[in-house]
From TrEMBL:
Species of origin: Methylacidimicrobium tartarophylax
Protein keywords: Hydrolase, Signal
Pfam families: Amidase_3
Its EC number(s): 3.5.1.28
InterPro entries (alphabetical): MurNAc-LAA_cat, N-acetylmuramoyl_amidase_3
Protein name (Swiss-Prot/TrEMBL): N-acetylmuramoyl-L-alanine amidase
Signal peptide: 1-23
Gene: amiA
Catalytically driven reaction(s): Hydrolyzes the link between N-acetylmuramoyl residues and L-amino acid residues in certain cell-wall glycopeptides
MurNAc-LAA domain sequence ranges: 187-324
Length: 349
């Protein structure tokens, strides 16, 4: 226990060093500590990203500029970026007529979305590990017509794989039939493909039932999972294998979620948000990863859509489009990195 506490305290100290949370290329932020957490004045945030700010109503803020738009409220755990819901690690705050954004959200949410070309990329990603959730005795959620999640995820995965292969992307599946694959084995499969990204496909269930789609990526180090509110556990400060890709995880999940919410544009409740979690397949995975919840099998409307092959095809196409946007953004950065490396190498000769 003492070792765990020391590790947590050390991780927290590293997390709170100013350099870690600076947006790439910035010269420094004037940090404010509020409730034991570090925040950046929204005025500086807006200046850096060239956004203008207005307060349409007390306790509400609207930002706009070439980078995009942000709509938020004091104390609310999420914002709308370009009209799409994104869960924050920590809420926006207003104190004495001054707004603040958490340092974690600055570096791990807004910066990769506003400046995807600045996300560090070691190499070009060339393929996808597709993870159909559940399987075998692990049936997953049950639909209102008696079918199980494991059937829908495998069908969607096959459709996604076919689309990606037709576009020239190699794919690997964590399962190709109705078999049980432990979560740890799914991670081991992914580890064999370091230049791939990882997408896990699921359908949701809750009581009372929710409605709509969610896209998850790993919670940043020192931040809570979305379903835990603002409560940060000691173990949340520990560095996980997946945290090495925090910025890429954000960009990947963001691009996929943008496409998913467009599946039913006439449904105002379709967007349940970009969210954070510490699922094993994201937590222990060295690849950039996202987990898709494509709707609620416990909801009559969602269940009827999910049961239609044409909807699962459209969902697979949406995920593929999101992956395509991610590959485009990271390839630009990877190409620039390669050019810099070649230039530096020639200078040393």
């Amino acid at each position: 226990m003492c070792k765990l506490i020391r590790a947590v305290l050390f991780a927290a100290a590293v997390l709170l060093t100013p350099a870690l949370a600076k947006a790439e290329g910035d010269t420094g932020w004037h940090l404010a500590t509020i409730g034991g957490r570090e925040y950046v004045p929204l005025e500086e945030f807006c200046r850096f990203y060239r956004l203008s700010a207005v307060e349409p109503l007390p306790g509400e803020i609207h930002l706009s500029g070439n980078a995009g738009t942000v709509d938020g409220k004091h104390g609310r755990p999420y914002v709308f970026i370009d009209g799409i819901r994104h869960t924050l690690s920590f809420p926006l705050l207003e104190r004495d007529r001054q707004w603040y954004v958490s340092r974690t959200d600055l570096s791990c949410l807004f910066d990769p979305i506003f400046r995807p070309s600045r996300v560090p990329v070691r190499f070009s990603f060339r393929g996808v590990v597709i993870d159909p959730g559940h399987g075998g005795e692990d049936k997953g959620a049950r639909s209102r017509n008696g079918r199980y999640e494991k059937e829908y995820t495998l069908d969607t995965a096959r459709r996604l794989g076919k689309i990606l292969r037709s576009q020239g992307f190699p794919v690997v599946f964590t399962r190709t039939s109705d078999v049980f694959v432990p979560l740890e084995e799914r991670v081991r499969i992914a580890q064999a493909y370091p230049d791939y990204v990882f997408v896990s496909l699921h359908y949701n269930q809750s009581e009372p039932s929710g409605h709509g789609v969610e896209t998850y990526c790993l919670a940043p180090r020192g931040a809570p999972s979305s379903n835990n509110g603002t409560w940060v556990r000691r173990v949340d400060y520990l560095s996980l294998p997946g945290n090495g890709n925090d910025l890429l995880n954000t960009l990947l999940a963001h691009e996929i979620h943008l496409e998913l919410v467009r599946l039913r544009p006439d449904d105002p409740e379709m967007d349940r948000g970009f969210r954070r979690a510490r699922f094993v397949v994201l937590r222990d995975n060295p690849l950039p990863g996202a987990l898709v919840e494509g709707g609620f099998l416990s909801d009559p409307m969602d269940s009827s859509w999910i049961d239609r092959p044409e909807y699962r095809q459209r969902l697979a196409e949406a995920v593929a489009r999101g992956l395509g946007h991610f590959f485009q953004a990271t390839e630009v950065r990877a190409s620039a990195t390669r050019a810099i490396s070649v230039k530096r190498g020639s200078e040393l000769q």
